[in-house]
Write a structure and sequence with these properties.
Elements (H helix, E strand, L loop, with lengths): L32 H7 L6 E2 L2 E2 L1 H12 L1 E12 L9 E11 L10 E10 L12 H18 L17 H4 L5 H14 L3 H7 L12 H17 L15
Antiparallel strand pairs: 1-2, 3-4, 4-5
Helix pairs in contact: 2-3, 5-7
Amino acid sequence: MARPKKEIVESVNENTAVPDANQKPVSPNDLEWTDHVLSLLADDEKINGNPTTEGLRRIFEVALNCSTMEARTEVVQSPDLANERRATVVYSLSYVLNDQSVPEDIKYRTVSAAADVYWGNCDKVFRNHPVAVAETRAEGRALRKALKLRKVVTADEIAKDVVDHSEQNTTINHSQLNFFDVFGKRLNININKLLDHLAINSSNIYNISYDDAVKTITTLSGYQQNNDIPKEVIGYDPNWK
C-alpha cells in the first residue's frame, strides 16, 4: 500500500511585507508623493538628505511614467568682468506622459528653470566653472518642478564653502586693468578722465578698489552698448597707468 504523501506547508514570516492589491498608487497630487519619489533614489544619490541632480535625472521617467522628448540648455548670461563673472542658465525639459488614461492634449509637457552662479553663491572649488554649475542647478530645479517635489532642494544648489568677497579681491586685478586699456583704446576714452568723472581716485591706479574697478568696467560696457560717451572723457592716452 502506497504511503500517503505528506502535505508540505510553507511557513510565512510574519515580518514579510505582503503587497496590498487594494492599495492606491501614489500620485503627484498626494501628500506622500515627495517621500515616494525620494525613496526611489539610491543612498549615493542623496547628500545629507538632499537629492542630487543626477539622481533625479535617473528616476525622472520612472517616477512620472513618461518619456523625455527634449532637454535644452540656454546660457543667457556669460561670465565677464562687468558682471563679476556671473553665469545665468535656463534649462528646458520637454516630456510626454505614457499613461493612456491621460488626454492627448495634456500628455506633452514642458518645464523650464533658471539658475545664476557667481563667486558669492558657489563653493570655491567650483567657482571657476560658473556656467557648468549654473547648468546643473538649473536642470535640478527643472526636474524638481516637473516631479512636483515639495520643500526639496537638490544637493547641487547648496553651497557650503563660499569665499567671501573681501577674501577674493580687494583691489583692482590684472584682468580689470587689461579691460580698462582695451576698451579705452577701442572707444577712444581717456581712462584717468573717466575715473575722475566717476569720482574714483586715480592717483595710483593699482590702489583702485575691486568694487570701483567693477563700476568702471560696467560704465565702459554701457558706453559701448549705447554709444553715448561724455565729451570730457574722450581722448585715449596710452600712458594712463
